[in-house]
Specification:
- By secondary structure, this protein is mainly α.
- It contains 11 helices and 2 strands.
- It has a two-stranded antiparallel ribbon with strand order 1-2.
- The longest helix is centred in the last third of the chain and has 36 residues.
- The protein is elongated, with a radius of gyration of 28 Å.
- It starts with a strand and ends in a 13-residue tail after the last helix.
- The N terminus is likely disordered.
């Protein structure tokens, strides 16, 4: 018998299971590219154009917040774990104490990237700088210094990588969510209560040891509760 169980709630909690290692690695690549490209934009945009570094940082706060969601989501990875420990020991100590991370940060990561892409389409500041300055790249006389073209190429590459990593984060994050949802739709009868912890569906499977212990527990309980008949009776014919 197959029993349907809810796909929300407890299903989107805890670390990524081994079955989702491929999606985990894809999201990790998107996160690292997102962080690296954002740092590159913050460094090279003021070098190429007359803009204040602090204004670039403030305009990047949304994607920085998404990167933090991603770090919490992928904290079980050794590379990301070092960034996670750095944040939880400094400016994000409260979040480290009150947020489990893992799959619980998957949907915030997806929707955060969707919002950043949406507002970037409405106000494409980065692309205005990139496409509005391509002509200068081929006119050395207009360069502010001899390395302007080199710095501009790095800045433009960071902008493109930043967009691509966010779009990839949305796509791979949604595929990961669908995988969690599909794995939590149905489980075999008799296992659903234990695997779901009494709540919603879970992507985790109980191991053989868990099943053996759960099957032997009722028999031990019955043995402990069994009592022989100790009452007194009457013989027939007496």
């Amino acid at each position: 018998m197959v029993i349907p169980i809810p796909s929300g709630g407890a299903a989107m909690m805890g670390p990524f299971p081994l079955e989702m290692s491929r999606r985990f690695n894809q999201l990790k690549i998107c996160l690292i590219l997102m962080i690296a490209s954002t740092v590159g934009v913050i460094i090279f945009m003021p070098m190429c154009f007359k803009v204040n570094t602090m204004s670039v940082i403030l305009s990047s706060l949304n994607i920085i917040l998404n990167a933090i969601f991603g770090i919490w989501m992928l904290q079980q990875d050794p590379t990301v774990a070092s960034m996670y420990r750095c944040l939880t020991s400094t400016c994000c100590q409260y979040c480290g104490e009150n947020c489990q991370g893992g799959l619980g940060c998957l949907m915030p990561f997806i929707f955060g990237n969707v919002l950043v892409i949406f507002f970037s389409i409405i106000q494409p500041v980065d692309f205005k700088f990139v496409f509005g300055s391509i002509g200068m790249l081929f006119n050395i006389a207009e360069w502010s210094d001899s390395l302007w073209g080199f710095k501009f190429v790095i800045y433009a590459s960071c902008v493109i990588i930043k967009w691509a990593s966010q779009i990839g984060g949305i796509a791979f994050g949604w595929l990961a969510y669908k995988q969690v949802r599909d794995q939590g739709v149905t489980v075999s009868g008799g296992d659903w209560a234990r695997e779901s912890g009494g709540g919603g569906g879970s992507v985790y499977r109980a191991g053989p040891g868990d099943r053996a212990s759960s099957q032997s527990a009722p028999s031990r309980s019955n043995q402990n509760n069994f009592q022989a008949f100790e009452g007194s009776g009457q013989r027939l014919g007496s």
